[in-house]
Amino acid sequence: MSWFLSSGAQSDWAEALPTICSKPQMSLQACSYLMVNSSQHAPGQRAHVVFQSLSENDTHCLQFSYFLYSRDGHSPGALGVYVRVNGGPLGSAVWNMSGSHGRQWHQAELAVSTFWPNEYQVLFEAVISTDRRGYMGLDDILLFSYPCAKAPHFSRLGDVEVNAGQNATFQCMAAGRASEAEQFLLQRQGGLMVPAASVKHISHRRFLATFQLPEVGRGEQDLYRCVSQAPRGAGVSNFAELIVKEPPTPIAPPQLLRAGSTYLIIQLNTNSIIGDGPIVRKEIEYRMSRGPWAEVHAVSMQTYKLWHLDPDTEYEISVLLTRPGEGGTGKPGPALVSRTKCAEPMKAPKGLAFSEIQSRQLTLQWEPLGYNVTRCHTYTVSLCYRYTVGSSHNQTFRECVKMERGTNRYTIKNLLPYRNIHVRLILANPEGRKEGKEVIFQTDEDVPGGISAESLTFTPLEDMIFLKWEEPLEPNGLITQYEISYQSIESSDPAVNVPGPRRTVSKLRNETYHVFSNLHPGTTYLFSVRARTGKGFGQTALTEITTNISAPSFDYGDMPSPLGESESTITVLLRPAQGRGAPISVYQVIVEEDRARRMKREPGGQDCFPVPLTFDAALARGAVHYFGAELPASSLLEATPFTVGDNQTYRGYWNPPLEPKKAYLIYFQATSHLKGETRLNCIRIARKGRPRLVPDLVPATPLTACCRPFSVELALGRRGWGG
């Protein structure tokens, strides 16, 4: 069965259905079309019309007319449209229609978003229904070089790469009017259709269709495209590839290079893997063979040393490999099972502290000991103490007491009041011993007196404060700790929250100073300092200290490219600076002649321009730079273009045209003022080179005046700079 061309004057079909040839652009005698008489063919038979291959460079629209009619209302069959790309498989129909639709022609459009160098071919198909009654017709297949009015046009669909087991998302942006009957589908090259998960209308003529492919695997890797279907036409995007990568897994376990009592050195052994690369991260996963926990360490070399392991303990070690993207970490590779060696005790008992102090006895406690500390099942703990006796304190009493197994508390009795008791804990096993640091306790002491506020001295900087204090005049015992609390209470920087959180620093008894860092510039802090003995804290000394302001900071990175350039001008983008401790007071644009033998200026605080210099002043002094503009901070709230050499005046600074035969460096400077302090920062944002025909080594000439406007004052509001 095939389509055939029928003339209205010679066909019984045309006589039975004269409305087929009643379209305005045709006469009955000249009318021609493609027709299938369903009654003359078996059910399921197909007729194809293949349109010529198209390789378009711009938006276009394929328009056609169709006819489906049966006198008794039965469906003569189904009309379908297929789009084959680059000679690939035909896939599923992008548009289809069946049923009986009256004795008139209907028009539909096809918006295909496939462009050169790709080509596509449109195939029209007629399939005979089981009813075998009526006619199917096709006419006026036209290609227009403008967008379709009834079918949306899709933007370019990009490839999607995901890791196996993850959800793949295709997002199809389309322009045009979408009807309520519009159906959006994701079509696989092999023919599978997936409905859209959501359709979001960006505007009245632009919408976004989102498609989800859950937990994809290698079997779903294929070409996909977006299709919109409606009775009035269809939109078809380009094919994009779904790339599914398999997360990598090592084939072999890691290799043991060396074992110690607290470490294992291994080689990753990742030369052979299962899955896809590239490998962007390598990790070691290890655990005790009989433990519930596991740790993962990132590794940057082929060998790795696992630290802080328990002695005489068995571990399982595996390697994890990760490729780019979410879900890119593969399963752990085969495990290496290895055991650490035994060793001497790791450390002495820690956490020695008093639980109760009286005038003649001292109750002490310390942290319970675990196997990870003793590193052996047989061990002893001894508590040794000493203190001076006699009125002249020239005699020492010493004693060591062995503790019972599992004990972490002991009371020393028969002590003297208000004396320093030196206590040490010793842990021993057959392989060695560890002695703890000697801790001094004082019997029967009281809280200390307050620290004198006059003894507080400080040196403020921009982001830190050096604070020093003296011991209380009345210590009332042994000072064990100083506690310094501070919080911000006032700031000139609106980005700083005041009052800020209260922070506390603890210092040892012999440390009477501290450097407070990571502070905010231009911010006042309230400091409180107090001392502590074993009985508690004393009174607090208060003082307020204000940090210095900092120079503003810029967000430029590397020197940006100019927005535009002519012989006498260059247009740059001015970005607002960030005040640090004080708001920005003013901005300046500085123009500096780039002379051949002159050392290049590196932007920074020490090489900025603290003294304003107009063009005329620079000309008179023979200087190589001048201020081309001064801008108020309120005029630069966002990034704004500015033209250097526009022959205008900004707050008293003339911005003259640049000389075409000279090279210039353009600097942008921000200044902050607060309470007598001034901080500035500048950055080079552009360079305007001389023409290539001018030799590099041209004798430097001083700045010359040219092209001064008749009126040098400019209504700055017209440029958006204020003034």
Please describe what this structure looks like.
Helix content is 2%, strand content 45%. The C terminus is likely disordered. The protein folds into 6 domains: 131 residues, Jelly Rolls, CATH 2.60.120; 93 residues, Sandwich (Immunoglobulin-like), CATH 2.60.40; 92 residues, Immunoglobulins (Immunoglobulin-like, Sandwich), CATH 2.60.40; 90 residues, Immunoglobulin-like, CATH 2.60.40.10; 95 residues, Sandwich (Immunoglobulin-like); 120 residues, Immunoglobulin-like, CATH 2.60.40. Strands 1, 2, 4, 7, 9, 11, 13, 14, 17, 18 and 19 form an 11-stranded mixed beta sheet that branches. A hairpin with a 4-residue loop joins strand 46 and strand 47. Its main location: membrane. This is protein-tyrosine-phosphatase. One of its GO terms (molecular function) is protein tyrosine phosphatase activity. It is found in: Membrane.
